[in-house]
Amino acid sequence: MTTEATSGPQKSNNNNQGGSTTAGIGGFFANASIWSHLNELGSRLKKSLFAYIIVLIVVTSAPDPLKPFGGPYSFYGYNFLLADLIRGAEARFVPHGFQFFPSSPTDPVFAFINVAMVLSLLISLPYIFFQLYGFVAPGLYQREKRAVRKYVLPFSVLLTTGGIFGLFIIFPTVMNILVLFYKPLGVESLISIDSFVNLMILIPLITGLAFTFPVFLIPLVEFKILKAQQLSKARLWVYIIVALTVSIANPDPTDISSIPIVVPILVLYEVTIFVAKRIEKNREKKSEAATLGFAAP
Q: How many whole angstroms separate alpha carbon 108 and alpha carbon 71?
């Protein structure tokens, strides 16, 4: 009796030890899996960073292909492509009678670096996306992978279109409006090169991102998270929010240049509603065809 009484707790202790050992092994493998994912993420981020740095070095040191050496704007006889691009932007976008000036000795350097960093990011962005997608892809379902691949091209097209629209339509409009205030205030016809470059980067970025919203709404309709009817009902509020957001983000205090920004966004919203309705109609047709197929003898 004594032996049996003592053996019971011993077995219980052994079982507890076995259970804790199993839990410990499971926790170890779970932690190992987490660390392996973190290591993979770190590796992909390092590759993306190295690619960006390489592109940045190439972009900052690239010569002017038309005239790589000599001339009045050369740096110790060497002509940088970026410097030529900034001078070209001055000739194209700065209103007649105005010219650049550095508000501080560091302005030209920061203008050069900012343009180089943005161009390098744009060039290396496809590779960075490829690395991030390679990390996320194993955890996605097949339909989610198809959705990502399906909308990469539309996102890129809309982002590029919005950026070009902002650079060649909105930015010159904003500049022409801003310089109208120079004369009444008796300000000299000079524009800070650093402010000019920052504005030239900011406006295409805003318009480019603003143009991409259909890529985020249409998949929600495909996955039945959002309905075309909801988009239609929210039309008035969307118009108001878009107008207010653009007005706040736009550096133009008169809001005149906000009109050519708002109108394309609203047109894209109407296109989104139209596409959403088409998606729902096609879904209904497929559902009816499937129903008829099952009902047929």
A: 19
